[in-house]
Amino acid sequence: MTFDKITMDHGSGGKLTLELIENIFKANAGLDSAILGDIAFTTDSHSITPLFFRGGDIGKLSVSGTMNDLLCVGAKPMYLSSAFIMEEGFLISDLKKIVQSMLSEAKSANVEIVCGDTKVIESNKGFYVNTSAIGKIIRPIDGSKIKEGDKIIATGNIGEHGFAILNERENLQLTSHLASDCAELTGLILPIIESDLEIHWMRDPTRGGLAMCLNELCYKRDFGVEVFEELVPISQEVLSISEMLGIEPYYSANEGKMVIVVPPKDASKILDLLHKHPLGKNASLIGEITKDHPQKVLLNLSYGTKRLLSMPIVEKMPRIC
Amino acid sequence: MQWSKFKDKDLVLSLAHGIKQKAKKFDRLRIMHVCGTHENAIARYALRDLLPNNIKLLAGPGCPVCVTSSKDIDAIINYGIKNDCTILTFGDMLRVKGSAYSLLSASKLGLYVKMVYGLDEAIYYAKQAKKDAIFFSVGFETTAAPVASIIKSVNLPENLSFFSVHKYTPNGVLELLKAGKLNIDALILPGHASIVSGLAPYEKVASSFNLPCVAAGFEPVDVLGAILMIINQLEDNICKVENEYERLLNYEGNKLAQKALNDIFDITDSIWRGLGIIKNSGFEFKKTYNYLNAKLKFNIPFSDSYTEEQKGCRCAEVILGTIEPPQCPMYAKICNPHNPVGPCMVSDEGTCRNWWEVKGDI
Ligand code: SF4
Ligand code: SF4
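ok -> structure tokens follow
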């Protein structure tokens, strides 16, 4: 697809984001962090409206997202840098709150914030946080070992962040209980990385949701993915808001979940480990790797029918009526 | 994951089985639904795959975005650019092309558009904007009714007016049948829209055209249940209006919503994309509300020369159920959700879009 201008869809984490990375930045979209010998390095910028939401804020999000990216490649998060771009007039009290939640998130991941930067821009131009981090590779996980028959695990209920934000941002007032799942997953994932169980791939299904994450898993590869609708963990809250908006939970963002590809022999042991941690109590085996339909993600519906879980191209819109 | 009882697996499978058994008596049944949300449910749960081959489930003109005429889109774009006013509308509407531009692509010509989730938000923006704002008001009675009641109940900012392209489903269907444009054996009526209109307006459809009509909800059990009710009618040789969606829909419809619609709008002729002018199928502001009617307030000029469809796009046939999306040569090749050639690929309720998302480039 060719465009002469950046559109919002280029930032939605779907197919266009992927194309931007490949065609303009000429970078490899394959991994969330770079593996540099025995260290992993990653960076992420954050802009979100509203800045404070049920379940978190931009500070918590910026730290947790970066930690989770390091975990994806098999690294233990160690040090973090942060940079703020703030509009003139921004409340110091709000900034304090944001910094406070960054600190507590970093503390829970046992990570030190070692440097930072601030810039102030004209009023009404927004508030942005960049975080970069390095971690120590415990063992590199790069997707090269994925095999037919490998099992796919989701560490918890999907779709919560995206719907919680939409609900608050647009003031839809559809549900009062839904909160973002925003969380750093060191406590959940590090024990698995440090165990002797095999892990073939890991990715946090953020923008574009589970659907995008699974499509990336088989993007340009010689295998495809099968997922079983009945096995995908989804909360009642998310199901009902999804019905009301006409957007499926598979396409809604997550900020505290991981998708893990493991060989069949280790799947149940990894599930056991996940279930022990509060953030992994709903972990479930949701599907597997297949050679039958390379590069495609098929969803097996409970009625015995099948359909595609396509790679999102444009951001999903609530239906008009 | 735990689904509602209207998604219940055993129930769905037993309905599918019942349909298969009973359908054996018929050579071929063409059942049309006229609601984008139905198409979305059917595609999402791959319900067509549960039906026997002799039952064709067709998607009719059920998506408000798909039936919005390019003439209306052209008009609002031209007006907005010339007079530097803000156009407010739903996200899906932004990507549909007029004869040359969509609202979104017209922003490079200087059009200022803002996506909103509803009229409330449009009012909010208009209040903040200094210039004129026009709400491009799209949708069937389901969306027209809330627009009408908001207009009645709140103080609108003076700079806000409306460009109504609202459509009225029952009359749209009736006129298409009269014109012989629909080759079908039965109709699944739209649950949401019928909550407003009630079922009485469909009596004529059932009786004059011998069509079993069943209003249905949007879950798999609803859709299959409606198909079974239709087959039962055909078996007994009756054609009447039935209600599968009793949990939310009653025969009379929503009197308050009907009153709001009647207070604000007149029923007028309306252009449906690809289908031309359909008599008595649109909602236009009553004279007393001329001051809200952007078309009059600003004397928005309509050009006579306009192409209704993009070249080669076969949306009109898709909307009438005469072809399925993959039969359009552009489908998935040139036309996809990011580059929708025709409107049916734009909205989540559009037939081509629904096919593309769950079937891909087959
Ligand atoms: S207005 Fe309601 S009934 Fe009509 S297409 Fe939309 S969802 Fe269906
Ligand atoms: S595939 Fe595209 S061009 Fe073809 S009918 Fe559908 S929307 Fe129109």
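Chain A has a mean pLDDT of 91.
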